[in-house]
């Protein structure tokens, strides 16, 4: 809810409320000092939407075409923009961006980072290139201002990010449009975001060679504002000396995009046992490897051979480190690695397929190992709901029996 006046004025008035305000006193306070929730968010008609994009004519099945057309219609309901003209600059929790953006669903009032990768994919399929470009411009604007893309478009997300897929959004947009002007603008900004993630790396020694692999790691020593009561109550299960560590790890867990999953829990079941900062995730390092490869290709397009080689070398070394610390040939699976205990998490998670999305291992693994990978893939996709996020039922949303479309998308794109 935006405030109607400067936050300092609101805080002063809050301090002057009686010790136990009545319901009417609370209502009067809110009505006087706050705009209704979402007042700064406006629905926008996308300028590049057309009723019959090319992909619809390529679908032969009538029912599937009708379904795809209904999905395509949804774009008109999901485009928003921020209007901060109704109040002071400091009166909003939303992070303003210059172009309209697509929300992940009708209940949302802000953009989110990694959701936008799949939004961009859909916009490109629907030939909505202007809207897609606008969303890229928004994120490039944010990285220029803050050095990274926050979890979502709220100021209380400014201490954490999400899986760093902006480089891949630019890659997909460039592949489809060939927009070299945007690419030239984007490259130095993508390097800036890359530098942010290089600060979230740990150094692992293998036979005297150091390999840098990334972790999620958030400096946070209080409950997350958007989940304050939940985090506070969970922290009370811990002794006071461990609460700051919990607040950091739970924020890092939100940064993963998998909030929450047994992947991050020491006992595989309890949120208060979260240890995200100790985990070297398969998917994060796969994405960063892919980003390094994309940056190498971008510099090749621009004729900068030294930077092309720099990022190629970074990608090669990251992949080698992933093979050493995250790959298990006997199981034919990629596992998260705990850099504190030096142990792999040998449970199945859908993240095991991420490396196959970003790199062709066909020649490297050999037919017998690849056959094991295929057998595991057949096993875990035999459920009625498709590919489960994990095989552990921890009651968390990123665990069994839940399946998430983004994981299924990556899996089936890899399989194809």
Report the sheet with the most strands, covering strand number, pairing sense and barrel closure: 3 strands, antiparallel
**Envelope shape:** globular
Task: State the total count of DSSP E strands.
Answer: 10
Helix content range of the residues, please? 40-55%
Number of helices in the DSSP assignment: 17
* Low-pLDDT regions: none
Q: What's the rounded overall pLDDT mean?
A: 96
Straight-line distance between termini = 45 Å
The radius of gyration is 23 Å
**Share of residues in strands:** 5-15%
Written as H for each helix and E for each strand, in order along the chain, the element string is HHEHHHEEHHHHEEHHEHHEEEEHHHH
Oligomer: single chain
Given helix and strand content, the structural type is: mainly alpha
Strand order of the largest sheet: 1-2-3
Give an overview in words.
The protein has 416 residues and is mainly alpha-helical. It is 47% helix and 7% strand. The chain has 17 helices and ten strands. The protein has helices at 7-15, 23-33, 54-57, 62-73, 75-78, 115-125, 129-146, 166-177, 180-198, 228-235, 243-255, 282-301, 305-325, 354-358, 362-365, 367-380, 405-415; strands at residues 41-43, 79-82, 101-102, 201-206, 209-214, 279-280, 327-328, 333-334, 337-338, 343-344. It has a three-stranded antiparallel beta sheet with strand order 1-2-3. Strands 6-9-10 form a three-stranded antiparallel beta sheet. Helix 8 packs antiparallel against helix 9 (180-198). The longest helix is centred in the C-terminal third of the chain and has 21 residues, at 305-325. It is globular, with a radius of gyration of 23 Å. The two termini are 45 Å apart. The model has no long low-confidence stretch (mean pLDDT 96).
